[in-house]
Amino acid sequence: MQAFLCAFPGILLAIPMESVASIIDFNDAEANQLTIMQHSKDPVSYVSVPGILDLGRDQPRHGIVLKDIRSEAKVVLLSTKIVCAEDIPDGEIQPVPRCLRGAKFSALIRGLSFAKIEGWEDREMILVLDVMALRARAVGVAR
After folding, report:
1. Which helix (H) or strand (E) holds 81?
2. How far apart are alpha carbons 93 and 114 in whole angstroms?
3. pLDDT digits (tens, 9 = 90+) for 102-134
4. What does the alpha-carbon distance between residue 85 and residue 114 come to, in Å, rounded to a whole number?
């Protein structure tokens, strides 16, 4: 699976490329205070990845526009800077461990992996975002 990786304290979040329509620069100081916001003029839901996954309140740097599915409202993930693109073999993605299933973010994570990223010193934990679950939550809240 090809994925964009966004860095958060202690982890990387993988956003599958197959779900991404486009990436835009984003710089809005107020956006780090929200979790999900429906734009009043357009059918667009803005989802703060740090807010919804409880990963701190880092300033969003990129808007990751998800591909439209079944003409639902457009969803834009607001995330920290994309640090790289990486190929994560499907066989290396493990299910979320039982001990983490009660965590706020676990329902939005498809699995996790550990990988050595080129240019980084240590192996890093990568959480793989479940884009369909996130879209369902964002569109459901926005209605």
Report:
1. none
2. 8
3. 777 788 899 999 887 777 778 888 999 999 888
4. 15
Domain boundaries, the chain: 2-142
Tokens standing for 76? 């834009």
* 6-20, 27-41, 59-73, 75-89: least confidently modelled range: 27-41
3-state class (DSSP) for residue 122: coil
For residue range 34-77, what is the model confidence (pLDDT) as tens digits? 566 665 566 777 888 877 777 666 666 788 988 876 656 688 88
Amino acid at 107: A
Tokens of 79: 């995330």
**Torsional sign, CA 11, 56, 4, 105:** positive
DSSP letter assigned to residue 19: G
Angle (CA) 106-110-112 rounded to 5° is 85
Sequence-distant (≥ 6) Cβ neighbours of residue 137 within 8 angstroms: 36, 52, 108
Q: Give me the half-sphere count of Cα atoms (radius 13 Å) on the Cβ side of residue 91.
A: 0
The answer to whether residues 124 and 114 touch, using CB atoms and an 8 Å cutoff, is: yes
